[in-house]
Amino acid sequence: MEVRVGVRVEGVVQGVGFRPFVHGLATGLGLSGLVGNDAGGVFIEVEGAPDEVGRFLDGLRTRPPRLAVVERVTTRELAADGRGGFTIVGSDASGERRALVSFDSATCDDCLREMRDPRDRRHGYAFTNCTNCGPRFTIVKDVPYDRPNTTMAGFAMCGPCAAEYEDPGDRRFHAQPVCCPSCGPSLTLRPATGDPLAGAQAMLADGAVLAVKGLGGYHLAARAADDGAVAALRARKHREDKPFAVMVPDLAAARVLCELSEAEEALLTGPRRPIVLARRRPEADLADAVAPGNRDVGVMLPYTPLHHLLVTEPLVLTSGNVSDEPIAHRDDEALSRLGGIADGFLLHDRAIHTRTDDSVVRVFGGRTLPVRRSRGYTPEPVPIAAGRPVLACGAELKNTFCLTRDGRAFVSHHIGDLENHETLRAFEEGIEHFRRLFDIAPELIAYDPHPEYLSTKYALDQDLPSAAVQHHHAHIASCLADNGVDGPVIGVAFDGTGYGTDGTLWGGEFLVADLRDFQRAGHLQPVPLPGGAAAIREPWRMAAAYGVPDDLPVAQRPGWSTVAAMARSRVNAPLTSSMGRLFDAVAAVLGVRDRVNYEGQAAIELEQHADPTERGAYPVSLDGTSEFTVAGGDLLDAVVADMKAGVPVPAIAARFHNAVAALIVTAASRIRTGTGLGTVALSGGVFQNMLLLERAVSGLTGEGFEVLTHHRVPPNDGGISLGQAAVATARG
């Protein structure tokens, strides 16, 4: 007796070859029926012998296509109708939208083989793709994920492509972006010099800076070994010191530049293809201006066919923008905004619907530690508790937003620093796109209470109930949500600054927190921030705020006495408990960096100077009972004493790092004594410091703590929106 079963599959099941997979699975088992896309995911009707139907359902769950994520399979009994054959039916756009959209995936090996085969009709074609790879999120306008709802809608398939699209035995069966040189997008070079690809490579070889239209926006490219080209790119882009990323042709080339672990190699070669921050080999042939003063380099492998064709040697490949602007993704804005930077433009005529920067990751403890979560990860949701739909607006720096629905948190692609109109517009456009794509009508809006954040002002302008979530609580909640934990935990939130509940600027915080609420258990002793934001740009001001002796070299600079007096009088000097600013003060005292050109530069360079073999540490003490304080000035006094004693800077920098790690263990142990809590969550931008993170985690685990770190979203402010959403959801 045959049975017929209706099946619904939810998750990332559109744009990943799921319907062709279902077709092949069903026909291979001799089953009849149908499969199609709708606004909720994939719907199936399957008919045949009960045992074969059971094997079919098991295959759906256990053997999906490589890019698919099956979250839920539900079934219902139907009346058997005896009709033979298995068909892919038209999509149904009606109903509640629950379908998820896949991330953009790196070119698969099968497509690469075709591109490299002179006999293949896609030989050397820069837009080759199939159901297993290619553009997804950056080209989709709406769901269901069908060609008319993407930026490929204007490219009519030629006969051979249409035949592949309709052939159940072909891996391009129902691949929505399928195309070839006869019917798909094409390259152009400005200024034109014949073959666009050959012309672009010739320009790069001659030392030019080239703007390249990629998957989620424009890149600026230059030969990574060419000192003049990289220096010119840096000067024109107004990016004085911040490291550039480097794209290399293959894994072998990456190994020449970097010392790579197995986990780092897996990230480089996987379908997501982020920029991986890895230890640079001393002999690596890179221009000095690629990553000045940094022992690491951000390296990535080609992830589009165009990259595979263009990149024959290491190239700097950095976001196509002037510093502090969002990445250019429309042709007209790229030609206008990048015209003063690039010597030429390699363009194509497939539109980018959503601008998406490259993701940046590290590896810590064998797991991914995101630094910037964007292409290759967005819009994959993070599981959270179910609740009413929430829009969380994030922070100001490294902004992301987050929309939630039905236990899924959709953290946006990297928006950038919300400090200008262009980035604010990208933020607003992104929210509208996510709302439409995932059919989310927020019933609550969460925001950072800092009154001057543009994200906060946007939130308060909306006609929705609102919930303020303190910045450092959001950091810890982000780490909890990242790990699927509700708390309570001991939360250590170290960053630059965040608006505190007492009106001061926090940033060196020890909390007892769960997803609903938090209590401040301890913090760094507040010190003045002389000149406000000026002290963030000029770390020497923090040395003055901490009152270091006037006979140090840092105190000889012009303006020292004025700034020191400003700190003492508390005029234009708000109080801050920031750990990031303490790192700045130490960097300035040691002569590492007294003025920064990008956020966190002084602390990053202090870590680079630290000797990892040094195990000594400065003493640190906790004062107070119910809410303890930590005298950061004591650590700075110890730094100054060692400096005057002639201790080398690398040893001093390492001892400071070790002292901060020891402080974390001491403070957590004290909180455990009072609360019984044995889990510590580490969050905030300071925990991108690998030396500090390693020493802190090692010390905590050695004392019997369970330690939570980030692996889905960044510990920096890029993860704040997830934390805000988790808190708002928990509060109901």
From TrEMBL:
The keyword Cell inner membrane does not apply. It holds the Pfam family Sua5_yciO_yrdC. GO terms for biological process: protein maturation. It comes from the Bacteria. It catalyses: C-terminal L-cysteinyl-[HypE protein] + carbamoyl phosphate + ATP + H2O = C-terminal S-carboxamide-L-cysteinyl-[HypE protein] + AMP + phosphate + diphosphate + H(+); an acyl phosphate + H2O = a carboxylate + phosphate + H(+). Residues 4-90 form the Acylphosphatase-like domain. It is an enzyme of class 6 (ligase). Keywords: Hydrolase, Ligase, Metal-binding, Transferase, Zinc, Zinc-finger. One of its GO terms (molecular function) is carboxyl- or carbamoyltransferase activity. Belongs to the carbamoyltransferase HypF family. This is Carbamoyltransferase. It comes from Actinomadura darangshiensis. The gene is hypF.
